[in-house]
What does this fold into?
Amino acid sequence: MSITVVENLNLGNKSHKKVNHVFVFLEIFAREGGIQSYVKDIFRAYQGVNPTYKAEVFLLRDSPDCSNLFESQNLKFHYFQHQSPQLGRLKMAAALLKCLLQSRPQQVFCGHINLAVLIQTLCQPLGIPYTVLTYGKEVWEPLKKQECRALRSASAIWVISRYSRDRACAVNGLDPKIIQMVPCAIDGDKFTPGSKQPELVEKYGLTDAKVLMTVARLWSGDIYKGVDMTIRALPKIAQFFPEVKYLVIGRGDDQPRLAQLAAYLGVSDRVVFAGFVPTEKLMEHYRLADAYIMPSQEGFGIVYLEAMACQVPVLSGDDDGSADPLQDGKLGWRVPHRDPDAVAAACIEILKGDDQRCDGQWLREQAIALFGMDAFQKRLQKLLLS
It folds into this structure.
């Protein structure tokens, strides 16, 4: 199927209009995921920072057919999707260079390490400063020399957690002075507490159950999410809470292995694979949970904030970016991420409900105060004005 390239930029007709910022991202609307949610929060916050700000947004591998609720006077989107990835990238580079020459924006924001060399190549000769946005594991390992140079030449690098900052700096020799913290945000109006929906309780067989829940990709390359560790913890948890069940939301090629593990441990009747659930239906699924369990290795872990905003206590791994949303354990349980006994012990504590970290209203208040959209917008405003 032929996919057209959208080039209707008309930048020449708009050169008299001031462009303050340029954003360049990989696919944002064609896929769902943590990076995509993070970038959409940036768009949402940008619209409220300063009504006079104007930004051009260049999206590689997206098309206007994708749902975009952010097109406005502040944000103008340009899409580059082509059956030949190289040609799509080339056309975007040409349009981006034209924009930089005509508009001379104050700052360019590069949304992925895979675009950093291109942004450096275009911006540096023009004297236009650029910022590289990072999200997680894409900068945790040694990068190519060209990518390292592009990062080191940036005026700033955004990271979403202290863990990502420390790991990226250590392995790639980055200067911590140019690192700026821009953690993920939670929309407290979107994720709210509520009662368990009877039709979902019936659908998943959760009547009178104590429900543990995880939202994660079930890919064989992502076993670090810890779904297998939670399954291994179930026999011990069931000794204290015989009514426990584990609701796993997500899909991927690792599901057969996980189902086989549950069968081997004799807990198949306790593990419910719900499959893919779209973002707009996640909130009502969080409300089913008595605890959100994901002993993982995350760059940050927006799912923990989503659960807390729904007044659900959380468990994470203890050696990753989840230290930030969980505030070093103040807001949740952090355990060694490949230790099923530690997972079991923490789950039992959570289900007993005696700890302040099980106080749903307090959890929600803390999460929104620290990571709500108001806090995110203030951080963004400060960085744009600096």
Summary: The domain at 11-185+372-385 is CATH 3.40.50.2000 (Rossmann fold). The mean pLDDT is 93. The CA atoms of residues 286 and 307 lie 6 Å apart. The longest strand covers residues 21-26.
